Amino acid sequence: MSSKWIIYTGLVAGAMGTAVGLWMVTAPGENRRREILKNLPESNPVRLQETRRRNALELQVLKEAAETNDNVARRFGK
Question: How far apart, in whole angstroms, are the C-alpha atoms of residue 71 and residue 75?
Answer without folding.
Answer: 7
